[in-house]
Amino acid sequence: MSFDAIQKRLNDLQTKGKLTEKEVSYLLTPKRIHQKEFTLEKDDGSKETLKAYRVQFNDDLGPTKGGIRFHHEVDLDEVKSLAFWMALKTSLSNLPYGGGKGGVEVDPKGLSETELERISRGFIQVMAEHIGPTKDIPAPDVYTTPQIMAWMLDEYEKIKGEHLPGVITGKPLVLGGSKGRSYSTAQGGVYVLEAALKHAGKKLTEATIAIQGFGNAGMHAAHILHKLGAKIVAVSDSKGGAYDANGLDIEAVTAHKEKTRSVIGYAKDVTTEELLALDVDVLIPAALAETITAKNAANVKAKIVLELANGPVTPEADKLLYGKGINVIPDILANAGGVIVSYYEWVQNQMGYYWEEEEVLEKLKKQIIPPYNTMYELSSKEKFDLRTAAYLIATKRILEAAKLRGRV
Ligand code: NAD
Question: Which residue in 211, 222, 183, 192 sits closest to 280, CA to CA?
């Protein structure tokens, strides 16, 4: 989503939250922007110059934290928006972190393992001086994996000449990753969804669900929800979707995707647009930003939209969905499970002492439900949509810290 759209959202928030112009301007100003270029030597010997970004948006609450994305559409504007959301996300979840984000403008599809490794190491070579366990801690995001985090960690440690596993999270377990991290984004979303369904007087076992995006966030959500007894009627990936009104067998869909590289062809094919318009209880956008827009919001029939992706609902669509009585659980809470367990990973790295999966999940639930409740209560009391309530709680905490530091 464009940073302009975020600015518009904050202008709306200014009136509702009685924020001063100075406060809004402070909240919208990124602290540091790092823009670099590095050369990728391809397997065929040819060379390509790639653009790399790291935006450290706000660090009032602690070191900046946020993922690194490999995608052909990555640009500074997008990284800025994502970094801003990270600042709100860490604040809302009461983490001792600020917000940041990074990316490399590259199409990772079609790249070999060795090319991906060179990109990962190249990113760290140009950014190493700006990141660190007490400065800025990256993590995975779209098309970046635990293996990529491992290469990045290795490159950083080579440059620094010491072991510093807390510089990056989302690592493989053997390199200091946390148990539960791989599916934590989805798990956090499911905890929040269970709370929202309870408020709506609906049981998860009676709910029908459609999920757009079948990667880390969407696929794990599908597995967890399927195991809990919810009926997943449709899932999709970048090639298209699969639909079965009686519910999909998610294990079988995953096996089909592993074999054919897509979910299409498993059941009745559906397009993304058809999936978004299905008559379901819960719609989970778990792919990229700006999926539900002014053009298709009127078609959405779900009662709850759980934003596992970052920025899947545009500000215009937000208003239309709210007008239709649809509850949109905002990304800054719905997908915060990832950064929460990343925080636990970092804590374990700093201590050098590792927790069991059960302990991680218990802590995650205890960390994500209170902000959900606070958001829900504020939204009910003030008649705000959930996103406005979440933004107000998050920005208030950032401003409190900034004021104590004498920055605003
Ligand atoms: P991923 O790369 O693992 O998966 C992305 C999925 O989206 C893939 O299945 C891809 O095929 C699908 N997709 C792409 N374009 C699509 C389209 N037009 N229609 C349907 N599907 C499409 O990425 P991920 O880590 O699962 O991230 C997905 C979203 O969740 C992103 O917005 C990301 O920022 C957000 N998120 C992820 C995490 C995490 O821990 N992975 C944490 C917070 C937020």
Answer: 211
Residue 344 lies in a domain: no
Q: Which atom of ligand 1 is nearest to the CA of 217?
A: 26
- CB-ligand 1 contact for 183 (6 Å cutoff): no
Give the per-residue pLDDT at 1. Answer: 80
Shared domain check, 145 and 39? yes
Say if ligand 1 is within 6 A of residue 308 CB: yes
Q: Which domain holds residue 143?
A: 31-88+99-177
Q: Residues for the chain: how many in total?
A: 408
Q: How far apart are CA 311 and CA 299, in angstroms?
A: 19
Predicted TM-score (pTM) of this structure: 0.96
Is residue 45 one of the residues assigned to a domain? yes
Active site residue 101: yes
Say if residue 164 is in the same domain as residue 195: no
Please tell me the distance from the alpha carbon of residue 375 to that of residue 329, in angstroms, as a whole number. Answer: 10
Could you tell me if 389 and 12 are in contact, meaning their C-beta atoms sit under 8 angstroms apart?
no
Nearest 5°: phi and psi at 131? -110, 175
Q: What is the pLDDT at residue 288?
A: 87
| Domain identity same for 154 and 189 | no
Give yes or no for residue 391 CB within 6 A of ligand 1: no
pLDDT in tens, 85-102: 999 999 999 999 999 999
The number of distinct structural domains making up the chain is 2
Of 65, 80, 89, 101, which residue is the catalytic one?
Answer: 101
> Do 139 and 257 fall into the same domain?
no
Question: What CATH number is attached to the domain comprising 142?
Answer: 3.40.50.10860
Task: Answer whether residue 217 is part of any domain.
Answer: yes
Listed in sequence order, the DSSP H helices in 235-277 are 250-260, 272-276
pLDDT exceeds cutoff 90 at 246: yes
pLDDT in tens, 265-279: 999 999 999 999 999
Mean pLDDT over each residue of the chain, to the nearest integer: 97
* pLDDT cut 70: percent of the chain above it: 100
User: What's the whole-number mean pLDDT along residues 361-389?
Assistant: 97
Please compute the mean of the pLDDT values over residues 44-62 and round it to a whole number. 98
254 and 316 assigned to the same domain:
yes
Q: Is residue 112 part of a domain?
A: yes
In angstroms, the CA 298 to CA 300 distance is 6
